[in-house]
Amino acid sequence: MREALTRLIRAVLPAKAINRMYDHWLDMRFWILKRRIIRFLECDSSKVPAEDRGAIIDWLKKRKLTMMPYGFVHKHLPEHIQVYIDGDNGMKYVLFEGKRLYFRRGQTEESVQRAFATLLNEQHEGSPHRYVDLECDVAYGDVVVDAGASEGIFALSVIERASKIYLVECNKDWIEAGIPNQFFRAEIPLLNTVDSVNKAD
Q1: β-bridge pairing 99-102 and 190-191
Q2: 160 and 113 share a domain?
Q3: In this predicted structure, what is the pLDDT of residue 177?
Q4: How far apart are CA 154 and CA 158, in angstroms?
Q5: Domain extent for 37
Q6: Average of per-residue pLDDT across 105-114
Q7: Residue 143 and residue 51 share a domain
C-alpha cells in the first residue's frame, strides 16, 4: 500500500514539489523532536548533569535542531550559499574550493543550500564528524576510495593530494550528479558498485 501510494505521488507531482513537501515535513519532524528533547532535559529524572543540561536547553530554545550543535555552524548558513544551474544539463551545483559540486536532479535551491551547509559544517575542523584529522589524513600520492561518495565532496577536498581516487556509488541519482562534473570525468573513475573496487587497477 505504501509503495503504491509513493508511486502515485511521484507520477502525479513534479520532483520539485515533492522535494519541497519533504523539506517542510522534515522541518516539522525536527521541531517536534526538539520539543521532546527539551521536555526530557527539563525533567528531574534526566541523568544529564545540571550544568550541561542548562546549556543544551538554552541552545535548543534559540536555534533549530541540527546534527551539530556547535557555534561554528553559523559560519555556513544556507541562505548565504550561491546555487548555480548548469546551462547544458539543467542540474544545480555549488562551488567548493573553486570546483563545481553537483547535486541530484530535482532538488530545490533551498534543499541544495541546506545540504551544502551541512556538508561544510560536517567537515569543519571542529566537527566530530570530520573524515580526517591530524592522525588520519590523505597524504600526497595516496590512493583514496570514497565509498558511498554521494555528491563527492570528500573526493574534491583531497583530489590535489591523491594519486588516484575511486568514487563508489550505487545510487543512480548521485551517479548522474557526478557524471556532468568535468573535473571528476577527467581525473577519477566513477564506480557504481562496491564490487568494482576489486576489479579496478
Answers
A1: unpaired
A2: yes
A3: 81
A4: 7
A5: 2-65
A6: 92
A7: no
